[in-house]
Amino acid sequence: MTPADHPAVLTKDKTHYCPGCSHGIVERLVAEVIEELDLCSRTIGVAPIGCSILIYDHLLVDFISALHGRAPAVATGIKRMRPDLFVFTYQGDGDIAAIGTAELVHAALRGENITIVFVNNTVYGMTGGQMAPTTLPGQLTTSSPTGRDSAVAGFAVRVAELVSSQDGPAYVARTTVADPKGVMRTKRAIEKAFRAQLLGLGFSLVEVLGACPTGLGLTPVDACAWVRDSMIPHYPLGEFRVHERLAGAALGA
Fold this sequence. Notes:
By secondary structure, the chain is of the alpha/beta class. The chain has helices at residues 23-36, 71-81, 93-99, 101-110, 150-153, 159-164, 180-198, 213-216, 220-234, and strands spanning 43-47, 62-65, 86-92, 115-120, 123-124, 130-131, 171-176, 204-209, 238-242. The mean pLDDT is 91.
C-alpha cells in the first residue's frame, strides 16, 4: 500500500476530533497495519471512555465497548476465549494511567497475548483539558491553572517504563506523531507490536506521544512543537522491551 492509498478498513468519513488532534493520525496507522497484515476479518478492538472511543466510528472492524480503564481486562477475556482472533485496545492517558492502571499492569505481568495502542497527550481531552496522570510538572491545565505541583499532585507517570520493567511484556515502545519521521517510526512500532501477538509472544504496548491543541490552548503547529520540545525530554522515545524474535527490525534513525 502506498502512502496515497486509503486503507479499506478506514472509513472516509470526517473524524470527530479537534483540528490538529493526533488521534486521527494514529488511527490511520492502526488501519494501515491491520490491512497490511491481512487482519481485517479477525480483529476485535476494545476502546473505553475518552477521545479514544471515537475509533469505533472510524475503523471498519468489530469493536467491543469497555468501562473506563477496563479495556485490558476485556481484551484479556476475548483473547482467552478466542485465541484465533487478533485483539487490541486503543486507549488514552486519562484512561490507561489513572482508573485503568491495575488492569494495565496486571495484564502486562501475566503476559497476556494482547496489544495496546496508547495515545499520551498529557490531558483529559474529552472532558475539558484537566490534569491527567501524564501531565508534566509545571504544565498548565484547566484543573492546574498555576501548573502541576508535583509536591501535591505527584509526578507524571511514565507508562512505557512502568510496563517494560515487568517480566511479562514481549514488546514495549514509545514513539511520537509530532513530525513525519515520528509517524513512520510509529507505524513500524505498531507493526512490531501486532506481530508480537501474532507470533504468540505475549503482551505488547506502543505509547504514542501526541498533541491535544485544544487542551494545550495552542495551534496545531505549536502543539506539535510543544510535544517535541517539552514532552519528549520527559518521555524519551525508543524501544524499551523487544523480544528476541522481533529484534531484527529496528525503528530506524
